[in-house]
Amino acid sequence: MNNTKEQSSRSAALLAGEEKRRSQRVIVRVPLTLFLAGNGQSEKINCHTVAVNIHGAMVVSPRTLEENTKLEIVNERTAEKIGCRVTRAPRESSEGFLIPVEFTTSSPNFWQISFPPANWKAFDN
Description:
Largest sheet: 6 strands, antiparallel, barrel
Strand order of the largest sheet: 1-2-3-7-5-4
Distance between the termini: 16 Å
CATH architecture of the domain at 24-103: Beta Barrel
Number of strands: 7
Helix content: 10-25%
Strand content: 35-45%
Order of helices and strands: HEEEEEEE
Number of helices: 1
CATH class of the domain at 24-103: Mainly Beta
Shape: globular
């Protein structure tokens, strides 16, 4: 019985976190190329997303980037390019560095996917 109570508390906490989001996120792997420019040089990094929304994505990269780094990303599925910035310090994971990026302008069609409506809730078993 205590286990059920703990699961309910965790589910409530997750839902509360989701309610704070500006838009629904979708867990999807999209191949990307990051372009960084600085000190008269440009750098290209191949990576992919783990989650996307209309405001940006969580990216897995083989190298870290500092918070507030400005860059351009190319969606390799569509060849579309958009400006963005790193919103907070990346975290290291077994796949690489998890880097949260935010578009410079909201772009609901950049990922070319349909997002769930704002009031959508996952089925809880």
